[in-house]
C-alpha cells in the first residue's frame, strides 16, 4: 500500500442503491473536493453541492462532507461524496477522481491508514471488522465492545504493570545504595505479578469462550443411525435440509445450519450415525462425525428410547445432553438414562432442547461479558506473556527475571500492534472490504 497516494472507494456497497457514498482520503482530498464541488471553508462541513467533472459537466447533485485531518477516521484529510446510487453516476464520479490523481483503495486500506496514524490499534481494528460482519445481536455487542477500546485498555494496563516491575528491578540493581530505593524488590512487585498471571489466565479462558459467540456455538447432533438426528435438524431449521429415511446410514456427510436464537449464532451440525461399517463412504462420514465431536461446544447425544447404548462416541466435550428419541412410540423404562425426551413426529421436547442449548450459550456469554473476548491471535500472545511471567516468578537472577518481564510486555504489545506487527498487517487488513 502506497501511503502517500490519495485513495478513494465506494464505501456504501454495490449499486444501484438509493445513496452511494464515495470516500476519499489523502493529501489531495480537499483540493479534489474544491475542484469537483466548488470552494468551501477549510473546516469540518456538510455541503449540498452540484458535483461536476473537470469540463464542467454535471455528474450529480449531492452532499459533500469535509473532514480535515487529523480529525478524521484515517487521520488524513478526508472527503465523502454522497450521490445517488446509480451505476452510471458512480462510474463517472470514479473516473473523474482517477483523472484528478486518486487511485482505487486496496482492501482495508482506509482502516490500515487509521492504524498507522494512531486512530485505532489492532484490537480495535479487529473489532471493527467483526462489527461489519456481525449477523447476530451478540456478535454485534462483542464487536462493539472490542472496537470501543475496553479490551485494548486492559492489555495496555497489564503492559504498564510489567514496565513498572522492570523499573523496580532496574532501580534495585543500579541504585541499591540510595536511601529512597526499596531494599527488596520482591516485596514490591512479585505479589502483583502473581495476580497479573491469574488475570491473564482468566482472559485466555474468556477469549476461548468468545470464539463460540463470534464464530457460532457449535452443537453437534450425534448418535447411532436412525436415532432421529436428521429429523431433529429439520425441525430446528423449519425446513427439510437433511434427507430422512428409515434406511440406516442415510446421512453420510456433515450437514450444518446456522440459527439465530435470541441473538446468539447457533451452528447445528448433523453427523453420520456412528457405527462399525464396511461401506467406504459411510466410514468417511463416521470419521468426519468424530472430528466434529472433538470441535463441538455441546453434543446432543440422541438414541432411541431404551435402545442398546453401545454406540456412544469415544471423544465427547464436557457439555453433553442425552436425549431419548421417538417419544411418540414409547415411554422410557429407564428414564435416568436421559436428560430430555423428544419426538420428531409430534415435536414434543423440542422447546426443552432449544432452551438447554440457549442456557449453555448464555452461560458462556455471562462469563465473557465483563472481560470481552479477543481472537485466537490474542490467545497465542497471552499464553506467551503468561509463560514469560511464570519464568520471571520462578527465577532467581534479577537481570534474567527482568528480561522475561520485557518479553512478556512485548508479547502483549503484539496484540495491540505496538511491536513487531509487520507480518500481521497484510492478513488483518485484507479481511476488510474495499472502501473500509
UniProtKB/TrEMBL annotation:
What Pfam families does the record tag this protein with?
MMR_HSR1 (PF01926), MnmE_helical (PF12631), TrmE_N (PF10396)
Protein's UniProt name? tRNA modification GTPase MnmE
Annotated residues that bind K(+) are located at 226, 245, 247, 250
Q: Specify the TrmE-type G domain's residue ranges.
A: 216-362
> What are the protein's UniProt keywords?
Cytoplasm, GTP-binding, Hydrolase, Magnesium, Metal-binding, Nucleotide-binding, Potassium, tRNA processing
Compartment(s) where it occurs, according to its Swiss-Prot or TrEMBL record: Cytoplasm
| UniProt key word Cytoplasm | yes
Kindly give the PANTHER family that the UniProt entry links to this protein: TRNA MODIFICATION GTPASE GTPBP3, TRNA MODIFICATION GTPASE GTPBP3, MITOCHONDRIAL
- Description of how the protein assembles with itself and partners: Homodimer. Heterotetramer of two MnmE and two MnmG subunits.
Chain's role: Exhibits a very high intrinsic GTPase hydrolysis rate. Involved in the addition of a carboxymethylaminomethyl (cmnm) group at the wobble position (U34) of certain tRNAs, forming tRNA-cmnm(5)s(2)U34.
Instruction: Report the source organism.
Output: Rhizobium helianthi
Amino acid at each position: 500500500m502506497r501511503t502517500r497516494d490519495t485513495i478513494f472507494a465506494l464505501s456504501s456497497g454495490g449499486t444501484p442503491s438509493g445513496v452511494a457514498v464515495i470516500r476519499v482520503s489523502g493529501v489531495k482530498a480537499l483540493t479534489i473536493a474544491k475542484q469537483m464541488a466548488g470552494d468551501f471553508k477549510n473546516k469540518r462541513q456538510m455541503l449540498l453541492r452540484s458535483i461536476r467533472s473537470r469540463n464542467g459537466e454535471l455528474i450529480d447533485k449531492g452532499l459533500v462532507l469535509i473532514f480535515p485531518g487529523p480529525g478524521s477516521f484515517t487521520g488524513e484529510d478526508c472527503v465523502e461524496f454522497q450521490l445517488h446510487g446509480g451505476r452510471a453516476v458512480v462510474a463517472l464520479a470514479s473516473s473523474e477522481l482517477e483523472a484528478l490523481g486518486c487511485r482505487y483503495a486496496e482492501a482495508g486500506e482506509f482502516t490500515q491508514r487509521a492504524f498507522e496514524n494512531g486512530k485505532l490499534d489492532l484490537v480495535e481494528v479487529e473489532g471493527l471488522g467483526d462489527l461489519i460482519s456481525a449477523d447476530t445481536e451478540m456478535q454485534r455487542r462483542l464487536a462493539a465492545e472490542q472496537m470501543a477500546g475496553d479490551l485494548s485498555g486492559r492489555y495496555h494496563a497489564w503492559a504498564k504493570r510489567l514496565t513498572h516491575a522492570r523499573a523496580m528491578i532496574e532501580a534495585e540493581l543500579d541504585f541499591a545504595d540510595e536511601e529512597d530505593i526499596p531494599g527488596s524488590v520482591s516485596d514490591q512487585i512479585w505479589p502483583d505479578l502473581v495476580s497479573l498471571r491469574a488475570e491473564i489466565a482468566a482472559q485466555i479462558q474468556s477469549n476461548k469462550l468468545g470464539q463460540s459467540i463470534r464464530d457460532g456455538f457449535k452443537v453437534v447432533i450425534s448418535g447411532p443411525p436412525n436415532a432421529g438426528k436428521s429429523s431433529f435438524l429439520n425441525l430446528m431449521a423449519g425446513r427439510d435440509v437433511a434427507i430422512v429415511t428409515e434406511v440406516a446410514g442415510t446421512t453420510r456427510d456433515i450437514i450444518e445450519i446456522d440459527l439465530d436464537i435470541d441473538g446468539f449464532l447457533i451452528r447445528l451440525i448433523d453427523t453420520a450415525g456412528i457405527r462399525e461399517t464396511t461401506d467406504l463412504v459411510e466410514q468417511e462420514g463416521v470419521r468426519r462425525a468424530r472430528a466434529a465431536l472433538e470441535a463441538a461446544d455441546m453434543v446432543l447425544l440422541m438414541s432411541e428410547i431404551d435402545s442398546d447404548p453401545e454406540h456412544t462416541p469415544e471423544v465427547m466435550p464436557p457439555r453433553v445432553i442425552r436425549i431419548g428419541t421417538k417419544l411418540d412410540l414409547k415411554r422410557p423404562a429407564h428414564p435416568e438414562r436421559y436428560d430430555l425426551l423428544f419426538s420428531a413426529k409430534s415435536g414434543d421436547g423440542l422447546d426443552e432442547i432449544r432452551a438447554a442449548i440457549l442456557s449453555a450459550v448464555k452461560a458462556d456469554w455471562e462469563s465473557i461479558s465483563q472481560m470481552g473476548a479477543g481472537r485466537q491471535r490474542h490467545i497465542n500472545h497471552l499464553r506467551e506473556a503468561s509463560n514469560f511471567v511464570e519464568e520471571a516468578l520462578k527465577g532467581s537472577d534479577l537481570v534474567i527475571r527482568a528480561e522475561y518481564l520485557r518479553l512478556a510486555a512485548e508479547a502483549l504489545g503484539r496484540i495491540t500492534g505496538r511491536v513487531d506487527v509487520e507480518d500481521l498487517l497484510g492478513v488483518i487488513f485484507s479481511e476488510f472490504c474495499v472502501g473500509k
